């Protein structure tokens, strides 16, 4: 089922970006209606797409209490432990403002402040993920964002997934709206009578959500336009083929366009992992979709050595990279393109998805070459601070004039010259 190829014959199959012209037109129309008609349009689109007529979008306070009654105590306990781990990890990313004073009395610095208001999109329905709440909200809280509003699609009865509500409540986010799709993104970006606009929108969604985020970028900030989730496992003869197969499947079940790749110098492991994958696949609840992903986007690549395996990994720049080799510490430093590196047999990818503390919002589709996981910096803004001293201006002003005149910007030069003239310099 999964193709086994030699390294020289391997080329990563990624889905070609589709223009999505029809979907884009729909999204732009929705955004325009929200801008013009506010809540009225939001109510109409919620009725059309979610099948429910809502008079009030905001989730009432008693819904949070009811949500706790609909989840298990074990879920709440695990969620709280995950929150503590994720918070601890992100607190190490805090930044501070700084100032530098030189011998001429000039002060230069950077003021670091949180964004004022952030919107978090949380998928609903069959793709409701409480973990999405944790990964998007916690770094914003650690950054010090004072206002966080969440939007999530309602079900046919107008309810929100209880696990999502519990996760939000545990983090202290109670400004939650029962709206989804492109209309929710438009409401966050431009505001309606009920939903105040935000400075940044984060969180995953379907193609309509992705296109809407793309359309409102510039009016607000966004974290990324996420593509299909992917995984690449670099393994040698010491790796357990059952572990390898399970980890490949853990990402393939996200969707039929999700790449799942094993790169190994061991042909024996390649064949064993391929057989294990077929066995495990028959037991999965999302078998049909996962099987399509493995058939269409999966690959086992046999290399001449680990050096070549790491070269391929860096070329692919995977979202998730697992390093299942005998001496992993010898190879970690050579991996330069990856969203997250999972080291050793017990660092399976779901550990990062849910619990250990690192963020699971990672760069996809090879963008790990230049992008980073979602982090505290994504919720901060930085302002330069300049207090130039009189002595410094008198000493260096003529140099600034020279540079300004070289660019033909006379008014720039004059702003310096007028000061020097007044001081008799």
TrEMBL record:
Its EC number is 1.1.1.23. GO terms for cellular component: cytosol. Its cofactor is Zn(2+). One of its GO terms (molecular function) is NAD binding. This is Histidinol dehydrogenase. Keywords: Amino-acid biosynthesis, Histidine biosynthesis, Metal-binding, NAD, Oxidoreductase, Zinc. It comes from Effusibacillus lacus. The gene is hisD. Substrate binds at residues 229, 251, 254, 320, 353, 407, 412. It comes from the Bacteria. One of its GO terms (biological process) is L-histidine biosynthetic process. Belongs to the histidinol dehydrogenase family. The lineage of its organism: Bacteria, Bacillati, Bacillota, Bacilli, Bacillales. Pfam families: Histidinol_dh. SUPFAM superfamilies: ALDH-like. The active site is at 319 (proton acceptor), 320 (proton acceptor).
